[in-house]
Amino acid sequence: MKPTFVEFSKPILERMAYLEERDASDRKDGTPHLKRLRQIPPQTGMLLALLAASAPHGPVVEIGTSGGYSSLWLAQACRQRGDKLTTYELLPEKVDLARETFAEAHIEDRVDLVHGDARSKLRDYEEIAFCFLDAEKEMYAEFYDLVVPRLLPGGILVVDNVISHQADLQSFVDKARKDKAIDALVLRVGLGLLVCIKLDRRWPNR
Question: Is residue 33 included in any domain, yes or no?
Fold first, then answer.
């Protein structure tokens, strides 16, 4: 099932199907952890697109491109918003695969793919409207500290794998829930999503 607020072209649907099949194969054939796509399921993609489309006007950022599957969903939200997705990936082989994805899906006009460590790049942002974080789990706390202060009022940070990796990420989730700058909740969608929404401090009772 695809979200009704965007139209998915045939090239996008075909590339989604290819990546879904490849991801399923990776999970069965013993592909090494770092080489696996480890991508989100479709229901997570649908929610990401809905949230990104509803975020305030401003930069839309993804940390952890992998093969570009989640980027396909976010790029469609950006098309509706009238802006572009900037997505960061550290591993060169995944950068190559993502670049192929964007070309095959004909969405290169909606995506800026950056090969490099997003931690250094995020410091250049004055503000962020939406961010999806799906990277190595030991980096989550550092990314959180870089992203949340830059979120616009009403801006959204979505973090993946907080249920599937609960033992490793519980202290991180607890930190977000105690952060007075945001509202935070965990959704049982896919492998578990932490959704953080930046509060508008013009409303002091919040």
Answer: yes
